[in-house]
Structures are given as C-alpha cells and as structure tokens.
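B., you asked whether I could sanity-check this one before it goes into the benchmark set. Here's the sequence:
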Amino acid sequence: MDADKADYQRLILNDIPLIDTRAPAEFSKGALPMSTNLPLMDDNERAQVGTCYKKYGQHAAIALGHQLVSGTRKTTRIEAWLNFAHTHPQGYLYCWRGGLRSQIVQSWLAEAGISYPRICGGYKALRQFLLEQQTAILRDTPMIILAGYTGSGKTDLLKKQTKWLDLEGLANHRGSAFGKHPDGQPTQLNFENRLACALIKAQYHYPNQPLLLEDESHLIGRCAVPPDLRATMQRAPIVLVEADLASRVAHSFTHYILDKLNLWQTHLGEEAGFDAFSDDLRQSLANLRKRLGGLRYQQLAKTLESALIAHRRGNPEQHHTWIEALLREYYDPMYAHQLEQKSARVLYRGNTEAVHAYLQETNL
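And here's what the prediction gave me:
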C-alpha cells in the first residue's frame, strides 16, 4: 500500500528505509535522512529528458527516457532496486512529487515480482510535512537553552538528559571556529531535514517535557539555524553551566586536539591525517585573524606552530598554552558580552553536577 500524509510520521519515527529515485544532483541538495539514492535516471539522462520535454512535450520526453534507460542500464538499475527491496522489505520509494519516475520504478519492480510501495506526493510532500511539524512543535513545546563558556562541557551534559536536540551533531560541526569535521557538513536542506526529523521524534517520545538545546549562534559552521527555531531559542529561558578556566582548557584540549586528530587520522591515515589536522588548526586560527588583531594573531600562530612540532614528536601538551590564551583573551570576553544581554533569562547556574541535578529535578 502506498504511503500518504497520514503515514509520514510513522516513516520518520521508525526510520523506514527509502529509495530516492531522483537524479543524484537532486538527491545531493536535499533528501530524507533514511533514504538511499538509486535513481531512475542519472544527471545527464535527466537533463536530456528535460530538454526534450521543453521542446517537444511530455510524450516525446517519456519516449526518450525509456530509450535512454533500456537494455543493460535498465537491468542494472532494476537489480539495485530489487536488492534494496529484498534487504528492506518494509521500505518505500519516492521521487520529486510522487509522479512518473516513482510510478515507473514501482511498475518495473512489480514486473520483476516485487510489490514495493511508493510515497504519494514524493519528496516535496515529505519536505512540506517536516516543515509543518517543525512549526507546530516549536509553537507548542517549552524550550530551555543550555549555555556556558567555551569548553564547559555543554554537549556532553546535553546528551545525558532525556529530551534534547543536538544541533551540532545534526550539523556535523562543533560550532566554534575550530569545529570542522573531516567528513564535512550536510547541505542546508539536509540539515533542516535532519533537524525536523529529530524534533518529531523527541516530541513523540517525550510529549510532556520541555526541549533542551545547547546555546548556538545563527550559524553552526555553514549550516544556518532555521529562523523559527532561532527566534524560539532567543526567547527561551537559560540554564548556565559554570566551569573554571583550567577545566575548560582540558576539555577543549581533549575535543579539539586529541579527538580531532583521531578523526583526521581515521579519515586519511596517520601521516596525511596529522598534516590535515595541522592545516585545519592553522586555518581555524587564521579565520579569527581580524578579530584577534594582527599582532596577537601572529603570537598565537607562532605558539600553535611550536605546539604542532612538539605534538608530531609525541608531546601534545603544548597545545594547552595557545588554547588557554585563546579562551581567556578571545572567547571568554565575547561570550561574557553575549551572556550579559541574556542575563534576565537565566533560570539557574551551577557546575556540571549541579546543573545535571537541576535538569533531572525539572524533568528534562
């Protein structure tokens, strides 16, 4: 049975595997988190059919499509859909609007002996459903923002709670100038789709609890927080995590040096990974050059280079020096100014243990 709007929530809540039959270029711009791209036509074929449609109409375009996707190409693509259907018998397929492409794939699968349902309305309808649900959830759900100076362990604390949303995880970025991950970030549409799905799940499983999010700026790397969510966050009450400078330096060292190096080396190998990790740190610091001022930037860049030399020789501890200076002289003053503007919204403040206890008592 094909899926209509009444089934969309079930698909999302259960992470139902989906075949996205659109061309790769369409898929890469935005898709559902649980989808796999197994296109009816590749980008070049789709472009040819589109040109034909504009010049000669629908019937000619359909005929060209069948001509392009025939023989070995057709056989190969049907085999890919069949393999997916056998592996994921509970799945569905979709195209842009639930029209001709998904109908063709569905009919070819039926001819091969597999009855596989499609999503009525396609990606366009699913995307609209996500946006509508997000609007309703943000309108009706109380929210609390977890704030604190850089390195205070907000993300780790966030994940110990019940109903929470990890915006940095969804954006695949740690939020600061040094927050880049080796495998990059999702497109804006994919970030928004991930976000809406996560909201739907959080609200469904914990309908009577406030939603906890970490304090974020408008941009998380290159991913922009949607305006409706940003506006809600800017009005929400704040719980403030307090931590001393030494513990924040240690936390930043672990996450931005040790963990980040491990990610780069896992991604590229030991030597190439260390080189990429080093370039990542250099570029991240260079991105702050104007704000730091030329002289202070040069001093920190020199300290960073010394730390990288020592690190390559087996001693990463020298990174503490430039991390502490950057926190004390750049991040802390900036965040203090921002926090002053939010002070009236602070519900509670305390160290990690105290904040965790408070959040548990308030049923978060």
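One thing to flag: The first helix runs from residue 5 to 13. Otherwise nothing jumped out at me.
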